[in-house]
Design brief:
The chain is mainly alpha-helical and 147 residues long. It is built from five helices and two strands; from the N terminus they run ααβααβα. The longest helix has 30 residues. The relative contact order is 0.12.
Length: 147
């Protein structure tokens, strides 16, 4: 399978399938919890994490797509600041969720949503600004050949 096939065919199909899975989980995700008693904050977190889990898989697909599109480029060190923030946000969401579960408050739930949305912003910002983070190999090869 070529990088073009992955980028033009499999990535859009995978995103569409994930969207469908996310919709199904949103509609029927609590079906496995029937017959048991759960607190309201647990149900909020359960539903939010179903969606967040699907989104994390989408992030992985986005990185795979970027690997295909930018396979002939080198990455600048600046991209690691973006990755640092990505790996900071995910544990932050988990920590805030534990705090919300222990001390339910609507402002904490709102803060969890904002933090999850921050992750989405980071992913879209990275994808839309990749030219800031990559160096073309063709330019490097030309310079190397002149030496």
């Amino acid at each position: 399978m070529t990088e073009e096939t992955i980028h033009h065919t499999w990535i859009p199909v995978s995103h569409a399938l994930l969207w469908g899975i996310g919709l199904l989980l949103g509609l029927f995700g609590t079906i496995y919890l029937k017959g048991m008693s759960y607190s309201e904050q647990f149900l909020y977190l359960y539903n939010a994490f179903l969606v967040f889990g699907v989104f994390l898989i989408e992030v992985a697909l986005t990185f795979m797509d970027m690997a295909c599109v930018y396979s002939r480029k080198r990455i600048k060190g600046q991209v690691f600041w973006v990755l640092f923030r990505l790996f900071l946000i995910i544990p932050l969401v988990l920590a805030l969720s534990v705090v919300y579960y222990k001390c339910p408050s609507n402002w904490l739930l709102l803060f969890i949503i904002v933090t999850m949305s921050w992750l989405k912003w980071e992913i879209v910002h990275l994808g839309n600004n990749m030219e800031k983070f990559v160096i073309s190999l063709e330019r490097l090869n030309i310079v190397a050949n002149r030496l």
